[in-house]
Specification:
- Helix 1 runs antiparallel to helix 3, helix 7 packs antiparallel against helix 8 and helix 12 packs parallel to helix 18.
- It contains 21 helices and ten strands.
- About 5% of the residues have low confidence.
- The strands form four sheets. A four-stranded antiparallel sheet has the order 7-8-10-9.
- It folds into three domains: about 200 residues, no CATH class; about 200 residues, no CATH class; about 90 residues, Glucose permease domain IIB (Gyrase A, domain 2).
- With about 525 residues, the chain is an alpha+beta fold.
Length: about 525
């Protein structure tokens, strides 16, 4: 049983990598957009207001944010295609159509039950437990809904894509039958989530009053849950009541009553008071975004295997900069939230602890999630009003704490964080460490590769279950291990062959995707349809 569970977790980790591959590119380009559109930088550097520059920066920011705001769509398509053993293009397309039907089923159910929230208020749908995705208002399950539906789609597709009908119904065979099945699965999931997910939302909402009445421990819970619940979308129900309703405090200004941490802090910025009120601690969810992710990123780079460090730096650094400059952490969060959940829980705990520490040390600095604007606002407000030097001291401590704890836990439990997922594979009796050379060129695109040797070495078409690849390795699951012919495989240049039960990994380097494509094309050509 343990072996099966570990195998499923490993498979899930590999599946999650597929849609995440694109986020590092998005993060790198996002940095440019953030810098060109940051209001404080624009005020300091007026030439950034030059229309072509402003247009360029805004286009980058808005376009990348459109991807980040629709990560659930990316996950459902990517996961469905990654799980599918064949015809992955059809599986991905069915995943997209299934997600649209799921959103619509949720919307229709909310309408008919009279539970569709009004989106016309000042905050729109914030705090209602609902969101709009692809123009469809639905119950907000964030990326969690996309991940679940993607897994369901991949599973159903593998079970149904080989079904064949005869006679007039023959046209509904194969992937068309898979789509027919997913119509009902998607509708069922949409209806079920509309009835069941509110219980989770109500449970989170009930915690709000506990947080409010629990002092510094409540602040810890506030920060802990705000981070922990990001993958589920339930984090909105944690911070919204505090930041935008009287639960986060009430301020009387003349005849005007201001309610909520956010408007209170904005008002106090202009008031001649000695120190910000305690409401500002509910705005401190940005503290870890500004500091903690630096420690997280450094730990990932430090613990990456030697030959993967350059690649890991290229992936992680832009995402860390995006977190610090824009407060956008999802691309980095999802790189370890599902493949190393224990690490994500630790992350949430540290985030909560430091919000409590801000209160304990009476630091009322503005921590808005953007290190540039926060710094400028704190400097303008002054040391007496904010105690911002102490905030930066706590920030430095948090960076070091994240780095030390993450490094220890990653190494202790051999977690497959970025840069570690493809290096060491454990067999039953020993650990085989294989040194790879990323720079090594394996195939020439103009001449191709001897895919026949690979296929024959793997035991032929009928011996192959699945073909996948990561950044540097061709991953193949075969039926009979005794049919493996390493001599034949070694007719193609590679840096090692790793065997774990029926899972075979051949290390080809950075051009492994080309080799996989060539191998699958060859299999299709000779009629294997694998």
């Amino acid at each position: 049983m343990k072996k099966k569970i570990l195998a499923l977790l490993e498979q899930f980790a590999k599946v999650m990598v597929q849609p995440l591959m694109y986020l590092s590119v998005a993060g790198l380009i996002m940095v440019v957009g953030v810098l060109l559109t940051n209001q404080q930088l624009v005020e300091a550097l007026p030439f950034l207001n030059f229309f072509p520059i402003k247009l360029f920066g805004t286009l980058i920011y808005d376009c990348i944010m459109a991807v980040i705001n629709n990560l659930s769509v990316i996950f459902v398509v990517g996961i469905a295609a990654a799980i599918a053993k064949k015809q992955k293009n059809h599986a991905g397309l069915i995943g997209l159509m299934s997600y649209i039907m799921y959103l619509t089923a949720s919307n229709t159910t909310l309408k008919l039950t009279g539970n569709l929230a009004d989106s016309g208020g000042m905050l729109g749908l914030i705090g209602t437990g609902q969101s709009t995705i692809l123009g469809i208002q639905n119950l907000d399950m964030s990326v969690f809904g996309g991940i679940i539906l993607g897994c369901l789609c991949g599973y159903v597709f593998n079970k149904t894509c080989d079904v064949k009908f005869k006679g007039a119904f023959q046209i509904y065979s194969g992937f068309k039958f898979s789509f027919a099945c997913m119509i009902f699965v998607s509708m069922g999931f949409g209806v079920a989530s509309t009835y069941l997910w509110p219980f989770a939302q109500q449970g989170i909402s009930a915690l709000v009053m506990v947080i409010k009445d629990s002092g510094n421990f409540g602040l810890f819970l506030y920060g802990f849950l705000e981070r922990l619940l990001i993958p589920t979308g339930l984090h909105h129900l944690i911070y919204t009541p505090f930041q935008f309703t009287d639960i986060g405090g009430v301020l009387q200004v003349g005849d005007t009553v201001i309610a909520g941490a956010y408007p209170i802090v904005m008002a106090e910025m202009q008031m001649p008071i000695e120190q910000f009120s305690s409401s500002i601690y509910y705005m401190a969810t940005g503290f870890t975004k500004m500091f903690g992710y630096i420690g997280i990123g450094a730990a990932f780079i430090y613990t990456a295997h030697k030959q993967n460090k350059a690649k890991t730096r290229a992936i992680i650094i832009p995402l860390v900069v995006t977190a610090c400059l824009a407060g956008i952490t999802e691309p980095l969060d999802f790189m370890f939230a599902f493949v190393a959940p224990v690490l994500y829980v630790i992350h949430a705990m540290i985030a909560g602890i430091f919000i409590a520490l801000l209160s304990i040390f009476e630091v009322t600095a503005f921590c808005g999630g953007n290190i540039v604007s926060s710094t400028i606002m704190n400097v303008l407000a002054g040391v007496e009003k904010t105690s911002y030097p102490t905030m930066y001291l706590l920030g430095a401590i948090q960076i070091v704490l994240y780095f030390v704890i993450f490094t220890f836990v990653i190494k202790k439990f051999n977690l497959k964080t970025p840069g570690r997922e493809d290096e060491v594979i454990e067999n039953e009796d020993e650990t085989i460490a294989v040194e790879t050379n990323e720079i090594k060129k394996v195939i020439q695109k103009d001449t191709g590769v001897n895919v026949k040797a690979i296929l024959d070495g793997l035991g032929g078409i009928d011996n192959i279950n699945t073909i996948e690849n990561c950044f540097t390795r061709l991953r193949v699951n075969i039926k009979q291990i005794d049919l493996l012919d390493e001599t034949m495989i070694n007719k193609t240049k590679n840096s090692g062959i790793i065997k774990k039960d029926n899972d075979i990994q051949i290390i080809y380097g950075l051009e492994v995707a080309d080799i996989r494509t060539a191998l699958e094309a060859y299999i299709q050509e000779i009629g294997g349809n694998k």
